[in-house]
Each structure stands twice: as C-alpha cells, then as structure tokens.
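FIELD: query
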Amino acid sequence: MKIPTQTEDFPAWYQEVVKTAELAEPSLVRGTMVIRPYGFAIWEAIQSGLDARIKKTGHSNLYFPMFIPMRLLEKEAEHVEGFAPEIAVVTHAGGEKLDEPIAIRPTSETIIWATYAKWLQSYRDLPFLYNQWANVVRWEMRTRLFLRTTEFLWQEGHTAHETEEEALKEARMILLDVYKESAEQDFALPVLVGRKSAAERFAGAVETYAIEALMRDGKALQAGTSHYLGQNFAKAYDVMFQGRDGTKQYAYATSWGVSTRLVGGIIMGHGDDKGLRLPPKLAPIQLVIVPIYRSDDERSGVLEAANRIKESLGSTRVHIDDREARPGFKFNEWELKGVPLRLEIGPRDLEISQAVIFRRDLSEKENRPLDQLTNDVPELLQDIQQTLFRQAVKFREEMTFRPTSYSEMREALADGGGFHTGGWCGSPVCEEKVKTETKATILVLPLDAQAAEGDCLVCGQRSAEQATWALSY
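FIELD: result
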C-alpha cells in the first residue's frame, strides 16, 4: 500500500490515493469515472451540507432535462461560444438521424431561461430562487478523477430578479453565506474570495465571483463560482415581466455552482504522505474501532466492549473493523482513508478500563478512559475539524507572497507555486503575458473594485487594482 510522497510526485500521489482509498476509478468511456461508495459518501456529506444552506436561504430544488435543443444554445452567442469546444451533441437516436441535434447539458442556463419565459408574467412572480442537483457533460481533453472529468455531478442555482441590485445581492450572498461558509466550516478549507477578471469570467456573465482554495502542492483550486448574468439571458430568451410601473421589463439573472471537484479539493487540501485526512463533518466514518485479540474467548469480550462503545456514541459514525487481518494492516488502511479517529482496544485495555485513541490529523496516540469516551470522542472530532482548518490557514499564510517585481513572482511560481498578490494595471495584455510565460492566472480581484497603491507588477505602469495570481487546476 506504498504511495508516492507529495514532494516526490504530487500528481502520482493524488492518483494513487484516489485509487487505493477506493474513492473512484476510470470508467469505460474516456474521461468518465465510477465514484465508489467511499468517495460517493464524501460527496453526499458535501451535498447534504450545501443543500441545507441553499434551502435555508429560501431556494427550492427542481430538475431540468439533460437534453437541450441546439437552437437554444445558439440563441445566446457568447454563451455557446464559451462552451462550444466542450459540448457533446446527439445526432442520432432510435436508429435515425434527428431533425435537430440535441446538446447534452454542459450547463443549464439556456433551457432554464427558455422555460422561465413561460413562467414569468409579473414582478409579483419574482424572485425565482431555484437550484438543481444534476450531472453535466463537458468533453474535456485532459482529465483527472474528480478534478476534471467528461461527466461530473454538481449543483447549479439559477435565479431571476426584478432589479440589478437584488441579483447582485443574491450572487454575493451565495458566494459568502453558502460557499465560503461551507468551505471553511464543513470542508475546513480557508478560501480567497473575489471577482474574476474579464478574461476569466463565465461565458455570458457580467461578473463572476469565486472562492479559491490552496492545495498542498501550491496550486489553487476554484472551489465555487457565483455569476451575475445581468439581463443577457433574459434578452436572449425573451424573459420579460410587467413591472411595477406597468412597463415590460427584462429579468436580472444569477447562476452559481459547485461540483464533485470539491472531493478532489478535500484530498489535495488536507492529505499527507499517508493518504487522506478527512474533516470529521465529511468523513463517512468518524471513528473506526479496531479490536485486538488472540483467541476466540478474547475476541468475544473485546467485540462486546466495542459494540457498547459504538452504541454509547449515538450519532457518531462508527465502524468496527473485525476483519481477519493484522492490526497493523488495518491501521495503515484507515490512515490512508483518512478516518479522523481510530480506537484500539484489547483485553489488557479492558482490564484497566481504557482504550488507545489515534488522531489522524496529528498522527498522535493517547490513552482515554472507557467511561469518558461518550464525551471525549465528540470533543476530539470537533477539535480535529478546527485543527485541520488552522493547519490549512497556516499553510496558506506561509505560501502567500507579495512580490516586488514580475521576475520575483515568476521565479517563485516556478519554484513552488502559492498565492502572489500585487498591483495590476488592468490591461489584458499584462494578464496574458503572465499566463503565457508562467501559466499562472489571476485568481481573484477584490470583491469591490478599488484602486491599488503602487505599480503593476508586470509592466510597471500605475496599478488599477490589486490582483492575486496562482497556478491553478
């Protein structure tokens, strides 16, 4: 079960962890994946927390079909141009050529806004606050399990509003109150929040907001986006309503989403050379009990104690590993799978009414009295959640730089990645120069546009804004 170290070969480390921890595996069509039960359980935990937050903000779930007539995509030229290289198209079905090609959903703005045109009559109908959990197909050329696959799972919110102010408020609320809170409170990943540059915006968006997390190899992972779409889609699909003054008006739109790439973010944001380190809120198993015994008589007594402990912990997700395998093998496997806590218990432990507890976040063992486990285990899980977040914050701080020149930033990016913050003149020429020469992009600009002091790191002209650059997945 030997896996490469992160410093030796981070991509190989990632691929081996995904494989040996039984999270996912490639499927039969290039770029697709089978998400195995352990990996899907992590996604379900992510989904459950996000879904609760989305509904708490007043949104309802619905579902739209994955088949979209090509004529709908073509009505919004900028949108279809942005997705054209990735769209999968059905041309034959039922043994015959179709009269009109059908796109397989790359995202759902087009079909949703064509439908909203039928639903919306008056300002009294607004806002539309809807979200769907679905699959998406984008024909990626370079794929990696969870991070970039031809088909993936996600949620996509699509809202319609009476005013620009309401739509902008919605887009930012989702970013801050749903995505940022989920990332930091549930995933234990600190994130940068901000606007995307025009070159990095979602196709068809007026403004794109994002949260960006730093992975252990110094690269950034876009962990969620929220888009203010203005009236672009409303005009393309004739989504109008009677306003308060009696005139016909176009609705203002937002869309926002996160996907199964978050599972990859959890792996790369917290993992170490032994494998996964899962935040307790997402861990399919929060505590694994490993019984240790030599005979059938010892086995019976130890298993009875293990089951009593499991029952006493109530809602804690506990698994008793009673497989016929050596304890050391089990220890390594559960460390690889990132289970936050491991409890080792044998006849000698029962004699002195204690058990050995191993914390995956710190790789430390300690003895705990059996009669205190009901209180100790929940407290330890809470502390592990907070410790993983603090460790991630510390790592990000150590990997955040303020270069004084372009050459300094370029060398640092080549050496180890990280976040690099400095002045930007606002010119797409400078932005493209950095991307071409270093492969780094502007991750985020400040959430609210504001002038930056100093000069542009790239050209030396007066800065228009402060930008943060990084290499990205």
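FIELD: remark
The domain at 10-270 is CATH 3.30.930.10 (BirA Bifunctional Protein; domain 2).
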